[in-house]
Amino acid sequence: MIKNVIFDMGNVLLRFDRDYFLDAVGVQGADRKLLLNNVYLSLEWAKMDRGSMTEAEAAESMCRRLPQRLHETAHLLVDRWDRPILPIAGMEQLVSDLKKTGYGVYLLSNASYRQHEYWPRVPGSQYFDGTLISADVKLVKPEAEIYRLLYKISKARNAPVCRASSSTATRTSCAGKCRPSAFRFRKYERTAPGKFPEPFPFQDTM
Question: What is the reported pTM?
Answer without folding.
Answer: 0.80
